[in-house]
Fold:
Amino acid sequence: QVQLVESGGGLVQAGGSLRLSCAASGRTLNMYGVGWFRQAPGKQRELVAAITWNGYTTYYSDSVKGRFTIFRIDANNTVYLQMNSLKPVDTADYYCATPKPAYYLPPRDSPGRQSGDGYDYWGQGTQVTVSS
Structure:
């Protein structure tokens, strides 16, 4: 059974930083792509960052590019999302997810990718609140 557990969320002032962690059990993450998503109240879920199984390729949404960094430490079986220069608009629940197939990440142009299609296993989420 694959389980993903996010941690690291919290309350931070604008301009501050947080590091989110996505720890896996039941799966060796170094064979799988991982995405970080967020969902703000009243808004659709959106993909903010993704990383391939080998870490060679990353993706960032325009809204976080230059401020967020996704990376993986395979020895920890964990994928991280380093969030710097946080803004109030970054306030949301953050989720990590992985596809079922190994060595796979939904292509950039695949329908529904932004909202989570193609990702099969999800964590329970961690809340991030950025105060102004």
